[in-house]
């Protein structure tokens, strides 16, 4: 699956709430939207853009996942979260 960015979007109130709750800055989300390491189709009209980033004072690796509904204009960022379980969500090319 090839990675592509989303440039025309809005961030929903729910996504903004989750970003704040999870200490994920808007700059991180915008960078992933612009240039994700990986794009995954979740269902018709929804994709996940994700990238592995070093975060925190210790520089721990996290996978940041940005869920986007692309079946509307502008696209809507639905939610965002980070996880240390990279292997669970990372897709290897087949």
Short overview:
Helices cover 23% and strands 40% of the residues.
Topology:
Blueprint: E1 9-11, H1 13-21, H2 26-34, E2 38-43, E3 46-55, E4 60-69, E5 75-83, H3 86-89
Parallel strand pairs: 1-5
Antiparallel strand pairs: 2-3, 3-4, 4-5
What is the string of helix and strand elements? EHHEEEEH
Q: Please give the count of helices.
A: 3
Structural domains: how many: 1
Helicity level? 10-25%
Q: Give the percentage of residues in beta strands.
A: 35-45%
Estimate the mean pLDDT confidence: 92
CA radius of gyration = 13 Å
Uncertain regions spanning at least 5 consecutive residues: none
Q: Summarize the main sheet.
A: 5 strands, mixed
Structure summary, number of beta strands: 5
Spatial strand arrangement across the major sheet:
1-5-4-3-2
Task: Give the end-to-end Cα distance, rounded to a whole number of Å.
Answer: 9 Å
Q: Which structural class is indicated by helix and strand composition? A: alpha+beta
What is the 3D form?
Answer: globular
Account of the protein in words:
A five-stranded mixed beta sheet has the order 1-5-4-3-2. It is 23% helix and 40% strand. It has helices at 13-21, 26-34, 86-89, and strands at residues 9-11, 38-43, 46-55, 60-69, 75-83. The protein contains three helices and five strands, in the order E-H-H-E-E-E-E-H. The protein has one domain (9-86).
Summary keywords:
single chain; 94 residues; alpha+beta; five-stranded mixed beta sheet; 5 strands
């Amino acid at each position: 699956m090839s990675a592509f960015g989303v440039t025309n979007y809005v961030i929903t109130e729910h996504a903004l709430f989750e970003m704040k709750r999870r200490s994920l800055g808007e700059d991180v989300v915008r960078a992933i939207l612009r240039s994700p390491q990986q794009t995954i189709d979740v269902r018709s009209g929804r994709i996940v853009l994700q990238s592995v980033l070093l975060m925190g004072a210790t520089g721990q690796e996290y996978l940041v996942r940005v869920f986007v509904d692309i079946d509307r204009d502008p696209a809507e960022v639905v939610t965002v979260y980070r996880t240390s379980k990279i292997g669970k969500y990372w897709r290897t090319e087949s």
